[in-house]
Amino acid sequence: MSDVSDLSVLLQIEARALEAQTLAALRFTIVNETHALTPYRQAALFELDGDRVRLAAASGLVSVANDSPFAVWLSHFAQRLPRDGAVHCLDHADAAGEDTKSWAEWLPEHLLWAPLPDRNGVSQGMVLYAREQAWDDAAIQLVQRLHATYGYCFAALHRSTQRSWSRAGKLFKSRRNRWLLFGALVLSLFVPVRMSVLAPAEVIALNAMAVAAPQDGVVGSFAVAPNARVKSGDLLFSLDDSALLNRQQVALKSLEIARADAHVAQQRAFDDAKSKADVAVALGRVREKEAELAAVDTQAQRVEVRAERDGVAIFADTNDWLGRPVQTGERVMQLAQPEDGGILIWLSVADAINLELESPVRLFLHTEPLSPRAGRLIEASYQASLSPDGVAAYRLRARFDVDTELPRIGLRGTARISGDWVLLGYYLFRRPLASVREWTGL
Questions:
Q1: pLDDT value at position 429?
Q2: Which of 335, 343, 390, 422 is most buried (most C-beta within 10 Å)?
Q3: What pLDDT sits at residue 317?
Q4: String of b and e for 170-199 (b: at least 16 CB within 10 Å)?
């Protein structure tokens, strides 16, 4: 982009920032329209709330779900970033030990941490820009210039909001108004709210068909890749047939020998009546060897496993199975219909609440943490079992709502399950009361 076009875009964005009538409109401009000046994949705006930072806006979203796992982690991550009023370029080398894994999972490698200064240079908030390419000096200078305007607009709108709150605060200076406020707080404890809990979840196929090993053997090869679409009759995988081929050759040779022995016995019976009994024995041995060969041939025909219906082949990795011994009936993969997607949830015993079928479920995927999917609970186990993480948990299944975009099967995330309606006071003090009962035995 040329200097002239950069200046034109800069002036257009500054004009839109100056035209913003509310903080919400300004926040939207900051996290979304800055992209026209300097490209990025994600942007998040944080506002100062005392000594803490609060996630106020994110690119591509009208509102932020602050209870999503990504938003919670991002807020904690931003809390540890510098607040010295300067622009900072960060990459994976700057990550603290606890942030290294989460950063690689949630954000691109290169970050730009830019303040929103007021007229006195005091930061009122910060913006985090993330992208795959390193931030060059030209991009940093453009962001600094634009943030000077952003900071001026933010301070002006913030003062206007504070004046409104100041006028509202004067209403509670009198003793009577304070008692009214106290009464309102007490009454709010009786407001009905819905219990909810968070649990790890995975997108699954609700009615997947298990594809199992037809016999004992060793997996030799795969004809499909994970998550590949297959049609009925397509080859899925094959067992190693080298041992069966050897057994087949041995059985064939044994049959030839048995037939030769039977022929000799029949020839001898013409000259010696006493040898007729040997003919029956020899023919019985022939039939035995024929049955053995037929059994080996049947096993050889079952080394290839084919799809019984159209669908998507679901399994982890071909390298996990190649050369691995399997037993008859052991599941190797699943065949699922993409439109049959659902949610598998592992609810920890420690977090369990009363749940009814058709309870609302919201799924926050790791790949799209700020765009939850809605669903309904359709199954809940009565007994706890060990989850894949080794935690005692209840196994829950949910289906997506009809108007919900179905994610790819196999994606993971966090589900929020809503339970019964309770009073706000009970919701707030449920865990403290449970702890008191554990200690006192009441």
A1: 82
A2: 343
A3: 83
A4: eeeeeeeeeeeeeeeeeeeeeeeeebbbbb
